[in-house]
Amino acid sequence: MSDFRIIDLTPESIGDYGVCGYKDVAKHVELRKKIDWYAEYYERGLKIKVVMDEIGGYQGMMEYIPGRYAHRPVNAEGYLFIHCLFVGFRKEYKGKGYATALIEECLAEAKAGGYLGVATVTRKGSFMADDQIFIKSGFEVVDSAKPDFHLMAYKFKQDSPDPSFKTDVLGKTEHYGPGLVILRSPQCPYSEKNVRKIMETAREDYQMDVQLIDLNGHEEAASAPNPFGTFCILLDGEIITHHPISDGRFRNILDKRIKGS
After folding, report:
1. Which tens digit of pLDDT belongs to each residue from 76-135?
2. What is the pTM of this model?
3. Are 67 and 104 within 8 A, CB to CB?
């Protein structure tokens, strides 16, 4: 295994490294919005760490924040909360221990900072980290939410209260009204380019009106109706995707619904 180091990004340095594959500040509005969002929450304890492999370069990242500011519909006061964990931008750099190293750094900072532990939301499949990497580091499932989300926690003391999903907001979509509704937050940079294309497709190819709701801040994200918090698409009050998707995937979802109607 080649040597690697973990670097703490700041609002000033994030543009030098990029995030989630976006590297060009001038070209990518996604990155500019992420930098602005990071600057806002950096003062509240938000951190982004990146893994720099000696040979492969940038091969992973982790983002975490004090639980009171988590951009997920969770009760996680007193915990550090991991928003994102991804390693292996190239497949040959997966399975190298980078994710474990990032988690260990987060746990160490949580303990040094007097937190109750560390929490995160997981889901098996694409886009999100699943349970196994966290179980390997000693996390346990403490709550679950439909359709297949887990809330996991590493507690330094077993008698500490468990984090939990906000059941009072999950699945509550009535106030968004009928039609196509997209909720997004700058916390996730994937919700910029794809959303523009999806809105164009909905209007031009399916003759749908679209309501775009930008979630401004942690309180709005924590009141979202789906466990991912910072993104979802609703159609007539039903959640049709819980996280960012491609335009092709959006078309597939609509076509299946149309054929089934």
Report:
1. 999 999 999 988 666 776 777 889 999 999 999 999 999 999 999 999 877 788 899 999
2. 0.93
3. no
Residue recorded with tokens 């980290």: 129
Closest by Cα among 75, 64, 73 to 38 = 64
- What is the rounded CA–CA span in Å between residue 122 and residue 86? 12
Clarify whether residues 101 and 208 are in a common domain: no
Helix (H, G, I), strand (E, B) or coil at 164: strand
For residue 199, give Cα distances in angstroms to 203, 209, 228. Answer: 6, 9, 20
- Containing domain of residue 227, as a range? 174-260
- C-alpha–C-alpha distance, residues 18 and 97, integer Å: 22
Residue 110 near residue 130 (C-beta atoms within 8 A): no
Helices 247-260 and 193-205 cross at an angle (nearest 10°) of: 40
Structure tokens at 70: 């988590």
Q: How far apart are CA 37 and CA 214, in angstroms?
A: 13
Res 1: pLDDT:
47
Whether residue 70 is found in the same domain as residue 20: yes
Whether residues 16 and 36 share a domain: the answer is yes
The total domain count for the chain is 2
Condensed to tens digits (0 to 9), the pLDDT of residues 206-250 reads: 999 999 999 999 999 999 999 999 999 999 999 999 999 999 999
Residue 239, token pair as written in the block: 């959640």
